[in-house]
Known about the structure:
alpha/beta; TIM Barrel; eight-stranded parallel β-sheet; two-stranded antiparallel sheet; 10 strands
Amino acid sequence: MKREIIVTTLSEAIAAERFGADRLELLFDLEKGGVTPSFGTIRNVVEHVSIPVHVMIRPHTASFHYDDDDVETILADIGLCRELGVDGIVFGALTREGTIDERVLGEVIKHKGEMALTFHRAIDASRDLFESLTVLNEYPEVDDVLTSGGAPTALEGVEQLVQMSEQAEMNILPAAGIDSETLPFLKEQLDLNWVHIGSGVRTNGKLDEEKFIGLEL
């Protein structure tokens, strides 16, 4: 099992790689769920680490519904990521009705080039988790779905995560509330290839090497 670790700065990215992370999700403003980091941050992280970097593509935290101006920003950011040699992007969009916004998803797929695509926890805010997953199954370009099973934490959503793993055509990437205490149970319940960890390797908001050791990184 490999671990994707959330980082927000160059120094965190370098530290996470040193501590044993297998992949990075790079974003800004972790406390609000993350938005797209700056051009400079993306460039510097890509230049200074050797493990894959996946960048959050999210123009704001108001909702997961995006208007035409938002989409223009999203596509511009994706273009920059592609030019900078980013390995993957992390993105999600919903309609006002709470379904997967296939129009925006289609545009993202057309613009992402060879970068991997993770559909993020917007799916947890959709009106029907399994309806949304059925839609995403129609897009082979979606490599991962980042989800807590529609619950506040992966532990609370483990039953749904099991069902999603059985239904999904792509990799299900469990997230939220995962740490050294909850990971063993999740490993028992799920056939995990990857797991996504943010606060579980932090103390007072800062990366903590001891917590990486606790996860056997």
